[in-house]
Specification:
- The chain has four helices and 16 strands.
- The protein has 279 residues and is of the alpha+beta class.
- Strands 1, 2, 3, 4, 5, 6 and 7 form a seven-stranded mixed beta sheet that branches.
- The longest helix is centred in the middle third of the chain and has 16 residues, at 105-120.
């Protein structure tokens, strides 16, 4: 999965630091990531030294995100990115990070994107309207006027693989760019356990009841600012499908010996499908 970067390690501990010349810098524009084009046409995450000739002193505006193998990673927010694109720096689709070194680039990139979403959506205090400031002690935004503290937003998502003996329930989204066969997923509601959310999502989207929920694993997923919790469940009762056409375009039982293989190995969806494939 995308977070499997061993032997590298992403360290979440907050540090009150300013960037040094060799520290990595992420910048995003319209969900694209800024990368450096090297002399051999390879791409890399830019470091502070790549920006200094373009932006002058950016140490005060670069926000510490996290470390990878003790190397600090920073974010330049949108208001600091007025004229950054130059001959050697260009914005690319974030999926390009999956094809560049170091190995941890893609996971670090979507984690940085997650935090960028949070920062850009929390410029003003939602309680009094005053400007928020970065905390120097923890990953938080502070309102000096009313004392409001805002922490990063992480939305819980449940993903459910429903098994009926030698078959797996698979679905296709409606009105989304994703056209591949996947498995059922959805956001947990306030006041709902993850197990309750799993049963509700399966029933709402397909009319299927489930039982014997078993935890499979979890995955941080910065694309949707969420953490995904995967379950495997058994069919409980009728296997007749009644799809919610607002959510799904298709739903069908697939033989586990002949499951579609359309996804890349970065997602927990892929891991769950492959774990249930009968070979």
């Amino acid at each position: 999965m995308i977070q499997d970067i061993f032997p590298h390690r992403l360290e979440h501990t907050f540090l009150n630091l300013s960037p040094l010349s060799d520290d990595y810098i992420f910048s995003f524009q319209n969900e694209k990531v800024l990368l450096k084009i090297c002399a051999n046409e390879n791409l890399k995450i830019p470091t502070l030294s790549d920006f200094q000739c373009l932006c002058g002193d950016i140490k005060s505006s670069a926000v510490f995100l996290f470390c990878v193998d003790k190397t600090p990673i920073y974010l330049l927010q949108a208001q600091n990115m007025i004229t950054l694109e130059q001959q050697c720096l260009r914005y690319f689709p974030i999926q390009v990070l999956n094809r560049i070194l170091p190995k941890w680039s893609y996971f670090a990139g979507i984690t940085a994107l997650h935090l960028m979403h949070w920062y850009e959506r929390n410029i003003y205090c939602g309680k009094c309207g005053d400007l928020l400031e970065n905390s120097r002690k923890e990953r938080a935004l502070l309102c000096q006027n009313c004392g409001n503290i805002v922490y990063p937003h992480i939305a819980p998502v449940v993903m459910v693989a429903v098994v009926n003996e030698d078959k797996l329930l698979m679905t296709k989204y409606a009105n989304r760019d994703i056209s591949q066969w996947v498995i059922i997923s959805g956001f947990a509601e306030i006041g709902e356990t993850l197990e309750e959310a799993a049963k509700r999502e399966v029933f709402e989207e397909t009319g299927i009841n489930i039982k014997d929920l078993k935890y499979f694993g979890s995955q941080p997923w910065g694309f949707s600012d969420s953490v995904i919790v995967g379950y495997i469940a058994s069919l409980d009762g009728s296997d007749e499908i009644h799809i919610d056409k607002k959510e799904l375009s298709e739903a069908a039982w697939h033989l586990r010996s002949d499951l579609p293989k359309e996804l890349t190995d970065i997602s927990i969806t892929y891991e769950m499908i492959e774990a249930l494939r009968i070979r």
